[in-house]
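I am still getting used to backbone structure tokens and would like to learn alongside you. To get us started, please write out a protein record for me. Once you have written the record down, we can walk along the chain together.
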Amino acid sequence: MLKKLACFTGWLLVICFSVLFSFTLGLWQNWSTTSILVFCLSMLLITVLLWCAGHGLVLIIKGKKGRRLFEKYRLSRREFVLKAHWKTGASIIKGARRQRETVPLYLILGDRCGKSTLLASAGLPTFYNSADDTEIRPTRTLRWWFFRQLCVLDVSSNFLSGSPAIAQAWKRLVQWCTSMPAPAGVIIAIPVTSLLNQDLSALHSLIRQQRALLEPPVRRFGEQLPLHILITQCDRFPGFSLWAQQLSSEQRLQPLGYTWSQPPHIDGQDEQILQPLFSALRQGMSHIRLSMGRSDGLTATEYATLLDFPEAFSRLEPSLCYTVASLCEPNAYFRHTTLSSIWFCATEPLEENRSRRTGLFIHHLLAHHLKDLGLRRGNQHWFQRSHARKICSVAIAFIAVWITASAWLSFDYLNAKAPQQSPDSLAAFLAKDEARHSLSPRYLPFLPLLEQRREKAETRLVQSPSSKRQPEAALDAYQWQVLRAAPEEQRALILSLANAVITWQQMRAGATLDELQKNASVKEALLQRDYPQTLSPLTVMAIERHFMRSPDGEKWLHTAQRLLESLVNHDPALQWLVAPGAMPSPLQAAAWWPSLSDSIALSSLWTLEGEKTYFGWINTLEKAVAHPLPILTQEKMRWPARRQDAWQRYLIEVSAHLSPTTPSKVSHPHLIALGQNKSAAMQFMHRTLNELQGITAAQAQPWLQTLRQLQQLSADANTSAMVRRTRQIDRQVRQSFIAWLQGRKDNNIPGGSAPADRAWLHWQDVRNKAVKEAVSQGIPDAHLTRALFAKNDNGDGNPLTDLLPALTALQEHLTPQNTDAGINAVWLFYQNDARRLAANAIHQSACWLNEQWKRSVIWPLGKNNETRDYEQQQALSQQLVGDFLRGPASPFLAKAKNGLGAVSFTGIQAPLAEEFIHLVRHNFSAEKLLEVQDRQSTRDGDQMAALVAKVAPLEGEQTTLSKKIWKLNVASMPASVPGGAQLVPTGTQLTLSCQKGEQKFLSMNFADKHDFSWQPGQCTDVTVSVIFPGFTVHHRLYGEDAWPAFIRRFNSGEALFQSDEFGDDEDLLKQTGIKHLLVRFALSDTNQLETAWQSWDALAQNIDSLNTQIADLAFRSETQLSNPISALPGDIAQCN
């Protein structure tokens, strides 16, 4: 139990650590969750495989299991014994081979046909065989027979049984044979009794077994394994022993049979297959028959048998033909085999020892013929074989044709007139020659001649007139030209130098002229030599290539590379590399918004195509200098940030021109595209993302991250709920895991959808509703702008009012507290779609309002206008316009500083005509759009009536006070000049002017008295005159308070006047040097008069205040003048 628990704990730890390591590595490398899980499963699978391998290895070492794994390589007891027998003879053959001795090996197969007895009775000495041959026993497995120069492997007839174990052992034996030289052949031993048997089924069964046994070695060795058929036990053929007894001992040693010089074609339908064999046998036996005499010991029957023996022996031909066809004819089950020879042999018991036998017609077969056949086949070269000879014949014929054709082409080429006329023709000849040699091997046999001719032409070409240039001077001049050029020209010159260096490298690498012509031409200032102007560019290139391969050319190349490196490093900012010009057409915003100016464009350097060109320049420079340059490496590292900065500026510039301030109509296709996130703004965003898709998440700037988040939200919104939920869980798991790794708290709310997802879905839902309403709108109507400018009493909401707030909510979720201009530009593109929907709605409503104007104002005025005079027409127009303003036009008008004006929504103003706005502002106040009780003029009239009611009693009191008369006694005293003067006053005069007349008091500096009568509001002028000899000066007081002011001035009995207080008479006093005058008037009691004045003045102030208020109200409620009927506009809104 503890062992299982420990195993389970171990695997659990492995799984946990694998998951932890996989997620840590995956999140660090920013892998997707799928990739992380695949990596984790791969780790677990590798762990399981390693554990299984280790466990299996332990079990194999302990010997408990694993036998099945090596079952096919494990030998059975029979196979082990078989291999032991095999090694005995194999080691001998390998030893002979090591001594460079060739011992042909034959396999002999047969089914109890006396083959072992035949080999033992051959009368040949055997080697490496310690067995006692006195008693011949059947071969149970294998038996090696080593004769002087021949080896025969006797295979037991047990292998013909066909059992699985025996078949497996035979396959092992054939496999072992591959470790030695291939056998010289296979001897198939067939007893003659099988041929004499009339039942062909038994013969067929025997041959099928032998051919099945023969199939593995034939599959292994193929044509290298010829068949030799050995007919044994021929002594059982009638008359064979009698015929053999008539032969001499030497004739009995000779082989009896036939060997084909070429393997015959075996066809079961051909009865003449063995015709050469039996013809030779009959001919030989006939010759021997002629040489035989009639022995005295032969009976007539035996003699007749001898005479008829050749013809009787030929009766074996049909059955032997059948045997050969069964063995060698190809079919669907067995491979094709080749027949080499057929031999007949037999054994006879010895007269001295009947237990032993002697072989007939086998001695020379084993001693010479089979050895010679094996050696001849072993010494046969590969080209002596039939297939090889055919292949060689075809190859020789092909080579002959090839050489003949090449000779004809080369002769035609070499016989052509040598181009000696001009260097240009020599260069053309070299280019043509290089093209000829590189196309095909047509000129390969005579390539040395062609090369010799080419070298001569190149030598003549190099001798063309040219002068050498020093690399330091030429390249220094080129450097000076580069440094004083403009950035665009600098780039062209530096790239020209880089291309020239690459061309020179290719020249030194052996490039052909055709290949060099594909490169950019080398500038004249970079050439190694000065050439005449008459030479063609191809000629110059050919000569340049020749000298570039010299040591001076190598020096020129290295100097140019150093110059190129210094030119690249001369500007750390690489302004010359990113300079405008030499680039494709810029990316214009007009491609998405035709109304924008063509000047709003992004240089194509920052696009994917431009990036490809840019890095192509960098690769060209690095390829030319043959090593990476640090300044270019740093530029590659800064490139993502620079591209993003350029795109950010482009987005900011485009977004600044996108905000629509005038309503415009959006067509139905554009509305549908807007609802499918395929509007111009969204397509522009997609283009931006596609252009910057190579920017990794770590390199992305905040605005690009925001744009990618919005794209991801859009992609998630288009997927099914299950997929969105899966992605949401994936995102939450990744964020939680990252938070756990960083050791901070995860603030994600489990089980709920992300706020950004909900905000995006809400924005998309509101937008789709607005698009749906806009698409379903047929004729112009005010329905799209309901509740847009004012609250709708019907409670029917407008999705346009929720559009921008929904986008703002989404913006707060994704980029809270944002101050980045790039992020703001991104949001402006999304706001552009919302503003386009609002502009379309306002445009539709404006068109509807224009139709209402024509229907409710213009048309009624024109109807029956001849029945009304001008005043009636004017009154009707005022009424119609007023009803129109209070009716359909009311939602489209709003109060402004200058009066009524067009309403606006998100900065988009209703497109009302200027004439209509002027008409409304100057002829109709804003309050006319309200009900009577709600108008300001109504409230002003009520207030003015109240003020008038207050003024009447005050005026009555004031009138009463004005009718009363107050008396004042004034006593005069002499006037003087303080400090003295040349002239002194001679008298004074006081004048009071009232509505009833003037009252004067003249005193000649005497103590005189006079009574004055004063009424409040009736006396408005008081004059104090000082009389001098020859002139009089006057001091005047004006206003209703003139007399009270005089009294307050002389309340002490005297008053000191300055000279400037006498107005126009000031100059007279200055001429006499008088600056001050002291005038004396003594007044009686003034308390009652002062009290009366204060009362009257208070009433006057109250009345003036009330009158001012009344005047203000009257001015504000003053009726404006009527506008002429001709001033009514025909169209009040811009609808086109």
Summary: The chain has a mean pLDDT of 81. The chain has 36 helices and 25 strands. Residues 848-933 form one domain. Residues 68 and 74 are 9 Å apart (CA to CA).
